[in-house]
Design a protein that fits this description.
It contains 3 helices and 7 strands. It has about 180 residues and is an alpha+beta fold. It has one domain. The strands form 2 sheets. Strands 3-4-5-6-7 form a 5-stranded antiparallel β-sheet. The protein has a two-stranded antiparallel sheet with strand order 1-2. β5 and β6 form a beta hairpin. The radius of gyration is 30 Å and the shape is elongated.
Amino acid sequence: MPSKTNGQMQKTERPQGGFSLIELLIVVAIILIIAAIAIPNFLRSRMAANEAAAVENVRTITTASVIYSSSWGNGYPPSLASLGGTGTTSTCDLSNLLDPVIATAPYKKSGYVFGYTGTSGLAPLGGGCGSPGFLGYVVTAAPTSVYAGTRSFCSSEPGVIHYDTTGAVAASSAACSALPSL
């Protein structure tokens, strides 16, 4: 609104506050471009971390199975649950060799579901054991979604970890051994 000073009209300028619509749209466009670049890289790194964790957990289950076999004289463990336990006393049925998260249903951790299948027949029942173990085993890890990972992993008695790029679970020791190894 003009004001009168010494008989002359002057425009009074009000300071403008805030941003114009164009400035806001430019900032939003820049943020969207940065997000479009960063989000896929973040998802790929998350998948790689989940796959690395799954491989390490398969390795841990394989090692725990060998320790179970040599400690309890019951062959390889009858189930993943027998490798777990939360007490201070280890038994043949709850050996405290594995993280309870993996050793209890639904056997999921870091976007992968873990499986354990005894193979090659039953071993002679070890002393103090509730159920006999097996002469062989197959450990599997399958992604729960495509965002968790794309590869599945498996291992059996030799302790070599194999992977399948389709994410399918190996049905047997022979199917696991036929896959490429890490």
